[in-house]
From TrEMBL:
Transmembrane residue ranges: 7-27, 33-53, 65-86, 98-121, 128-154, 174-193, 205-225, 231-253, 265-289, 295-318
Record's keyword terms, sorted: Membrane, Transmembrane, Transmembrane helix
Top-level taxon in the UniProt lineage: Bacteria
Coiled coil stretches, renumbered: none
GO-annotated cellular components: plasma membrane
Name this protein carries in UniProt: Bile acid:sodium symporter
């Protein structure tokens, strides 16, 4: 029981990176070195994501287009709309950079690993979850910058840079390594799968580098002096409300579309989650010159909340499945 409420170890590492950046921020030549190291690490991260992507899994789940369309509508349509609607209610309690981060969070693709893992725990439609989460991650490279520019238009928040140079950086740093990794899958796919535990540290290490670099710049720019505790509490409330509304929307949509239980589970865990591993690199490019540390802070808080809530719900679904299907549980 206690494991369901435990803190994600990766969150502890993120907190340590933030503390280090707050106490010992990188500046000058050190900041340049960390920035280049973070860019290379992120390219490696997306290369490995591409190498892990199984074409067989994509083919197995690609046929359920109604479910995928429902998931994408939650991820890239319902989420941004809710982010805009939350603004009049909570926007006054957040700093402009934090609210920018909330809107950016709403435009991100779904997670891959955790969405699939929770769908599997809850005994949902795993092949469809693999296909949808992987496609969402890839589509996010294109859709997230466009959606972010649209939702930030007309607000008083920091604007995302959508210049040709920015799109070129996204293609070069994120999409190209992903495609190269997937093309290299016949050569290195087995090696990558066998070393999944080791490569998990590569994933986390790249994110930690970006977080430290981004928060160092934000701290030097006065992040903590301009972010009152009340704004952080409001951000926590926003995250809880946003996650609750989206989860409710997935259930309503699933019933409206007459999906079975397994499909509704996939819709829930693929539609209601946002990707930290994709979000931080994209933010680092889109908001270059802005307080990236403050902008990704909502994503980091939402990430931990979604893990805790989804773990509880996945356990509930798993127990419900065990009661409904006692025979397979003994196999």
């Amino acid at each position: 029981m206690t494991s369901r409420f435990s803190i994600d170890p990766f969150l502890i590492k993120l907190l340590i990176a933030i503390v280090l950046a707050s106490l010992l921020p990188a500046h000058g030549v050190g900041a340049t070195i960390f920035s280049w190291a973070a860019s290379l690490a992120i390219a490696l991260l997306f290369f490995l994501h591409g190498a892990r992507l199984s074409r067989g899994a994509i083919i197995a789940g690609a046929g359920h287009w109604r479910l995928h369309a429902s998931i994408f509508s939650i991820t890239f349509l319902v989420f941004p709309i809710l982010g805009l609607l939350i603004g009049p209610v909570f926007g006054g309690y957040l700093t402009p950079d934090l609210y920018t981060g909330v809107l950016f969070l709403c435009c991100l693709p779904a997670t891959v690993q955790s969405a699939i893992a929770f769908t599997a725990i809850a005994r949902g439609n795993v092949p469809a979850a693999i296909c949808s989460a992987s496609a969402s991650s890839l589509l996010g490279v294109f859709l997230t910058p466009v959606l972010t520019g649209l939702v930030l238009a007309g607000t008083n928040t920091a604007s995302a840079s959508l210049s040709t140079d920015t799109l070129g950086k996204i293609m070069l740093q994120l999409l190209l390594p992903f495609v190269l990794g997937h093309l290299a899958r016949p050569l290195i796919g087995t090696w990558v799968v066998k070393r999944n535990r080791l490569l998990k540290h590569v994933d986390q290490g790249s994110i930690l580098l970006v977080v430290y670099s981004a928060f160092s710049a934000a701290v030097i720019g006065g992040l903590w002096s301009s972010t009152p505790p009340s704004a952080l509490l409001a951000l926590l409330a926003v995250s809880l409300v946003l996650l609750g509304l989206v989860m409710g929307a997935t259930q309503l949509l699933g019933r409206f579309m007459h999906f079975g239980l397994e499909d509704r589970i996939a819709l829930l865990f693929c539609g209601a989650k946002k990707s930290l591993s994709s979000g931080i690199p994209i933010a680092n490019i889109l908001f270059a010159g802005h307080a990236v540390g403050a902008i990704v802070l909502p994503l980091m808080i939402f990430h931990q909340i979604q893990l805790i809530v989804c773990a509880i719900i996945a356990g509930m679904y798993a127990r419900r499945t065990l009661v409904a299907e006692p025979s397979p549980s003994r196999v």
